[in-house]
Amino acid sequence: MTLFQGATDTAIALGLEPVGVVESWIERPMYHYLRPELTQVRYLGLETQPDLEAIAWLHPDVIVGARNRHTVIAPLLSRIAPTVIAEQLYDFKALLRLMAEATGREDQGEQLLLRWQRRVTDFQTKMARSLDERWPPTVSVISFRSNHARIYYGGFARTVLDELGFRTPASQQQAGWGIKLTSQESIPAMDAEAIFVFMVASDPSVMETFRKWTVHPLWQQLEAAMNQAVFRVDPVIWNMGGGYLAANRMLDELYAHYGLPPLEADQDCLSC
User: Fold this and answer.
1) Cα separation of 42 and 170, whole Å?
2) Span 168-193, pLDDT tens digits
3) What is the C-alpha to C-alpha distance for residues 102 and 123, in angstroms, rounded to an integer?
4) Using CA of residue 5, residue 251, residue 219, residue 179, what is the dihedral sign?
5) Does domain 5-108 have CATH number 3.40.50.1370?
6) Measured at the alpha carbon of residue 255, what is the angle toward residues 249 and 256, in degrees to the nearest 5?
7) What's the predicted TM-score (pTM) here?
8) Could you give the 3-state DSSP secondary structure of residue 210?
């Protein structure tokens, strides 16, 4: 049983179908990329307030929660079934190891990590060959909301980008998740050689914020904007999925963005 999004993703990567999961933040009740593997699942509400009665009724073998979400209810969960608590949401490799050990799938977990490392090495090699002295570039991760923009100093996407070898702009090398920008005068803080933008495009107010900010003269002066290196990416994959499969799909997008051929063994495997 999984009580946050990254755990659901990771369970599926390990070949498990949880008996119960919490609902996704968008694309409810579950992100489209995970739905095909969740045919018999029971939904347990949001990860911030899962239905304890439903959890008990399902008699799970193992419950997976997150420290920043479920510390208060962890003693109750542990009375229902053995419970493992992930220390933080963004380290998908640590989460994979934790869940592999808790479910007796250590071998599968190690094979998945080896496959990930092969892809990372392949991507770095091809990027260095493609960009030459321009590798590795600085990149910003930003999102737009209905009334502000955000720069991410940490988080899932930043963690994956760091491992792949991309650099963080010096001004963004700070502690914490990031910063909210409410004024367009702050646009220069987003500057980098490339910018990855995610947002909920189905929300008209979000798209209006995006439009207003990206037509501003300060946006047009950003290095990434001038070099046509601003990439819109999937918010589910880059921010919400939070697991092994999401990390690999994020890497799929990066191969495509930079026009690189995928690792040969993975050409028919979008969620390896």
Assistant:
1) 45
2) 999 999 999 999 999 999 999 999 99
3) 31
4) positive
5) no
6) 90
7) 0.94
8) helix
